[in-house]
Amino acid sequence: MKTDVIEKIQSKNAVIGIIGLGYVGLPLALSFVRAGFSVLGFDIDPDKTEKLSKGISPIAHIAGSDIEEMLAKGFEPTVDFARASEADALILCVPTPLNRYREPDLSYVTSTVETIVPYLRTGQIVSLESTTYPGTTDEEIATRISPRGFTIGEDLFLIYSPEREDPGNPHFTTRTIPKICGGYTSHCLEVGVALYESVIDRVVPVSSTRAAELTKLLENIHRAVNIGLVNEMKLVADRMGLDIREVIDAAATKPFGFVPYYPGPGLGGHCIPIDPFYLTWKAREYGMNTRFIELAGEVNGAMPDFVVNKILFGLNEELKSIKGSKILVLGIAYKPNIDDMRESPSVIIMEKLRDMGAIISYSDPHIATFPKMREHHFELDCVELTGEEIASSDCVLLATDHDSFDYDFILEHAKLIVDTRGRYKQGTVKVIAS
Within a 10 A sphere around the Cβ of 86, how many other Cβ atoms? Predict the structure, then answer.
């Protein structure tokens, strides 16, 4: 069976099923289509699949022409999960958020597996790409598949291969980012490597699904902890009247032993603010307290309050109260040049300011209307960044530094700017670094 599956992949006769057509699943589907595979795209959102079937991309950094290319090559978006039986490989790219208690919420993973289990057949591959804690693939997926009569590693193959997408990064694509792959058994690993080698330049096999799951967490915890460190250094530098970005740039001239990270208004995105808590939760099962990781989370989580205090200070200097003041937020995506708002610190800051009585507006060239979110609610549309709009605001908050913003124009018209991204040199008139 293993040999037949690998041969089917290598001959490009395998049908690939991508479950979840978001920031991870859609670029992966595009890669498989371009590699010559037939691809089925599954999603629970009928509006999304309908738009995709018309050649409309739901993601800013994937062009409509890319979707049209996919459709022309046989890509089929669908909400009919019964068609899972048609796929030779089913790749799960679904969310793994935290619940209200900052604990892992695997409901999207488990419900997806339970949905497709009735349609599984021998010879299929099931791969999970969602970020999660070590043990998820074995404990939550294998245990739901095995009772159906499959022998995993013999007649069905289970792997974990974490996504490494960096939306909007022009230097790395799905194909060029090395892919970690762990198998439930050695046969599963062989099949998984064959699957991903067909679309990825370099596949990195590891000894188990648990090792692959922990690898993904380590990558994101490494970044979260270092950002926490530099954010704390920013607080110290601010108290000392020093420009932390000048210090970081100077330190970065050292050709070894230092990697520059830069501070900001908090952590955003689908990985960095969330993934560390997956490990802290799982570590408690082994009697471990991950104090270092949790401390970084505390520091990063406090940054929105630091920004709000800078706004309060700036308005106070102008003899203004936060209540009734008009605050224009520049950028509500979690990082520059994309339309992704997941865990964006901009939204947290906006809520805090609104609760204090401020009048909030925003401008973001990538987000025309504030979207419906599970926990955050604003009835706002993007405002045009005119000189009049800027000048009528009591404070302009630079939260996400999109390249398309005209920073000289903003500086010319603004009364007060709170800059969380270091776009303006410290000491610039009308600008408060935050």
Answer: 15
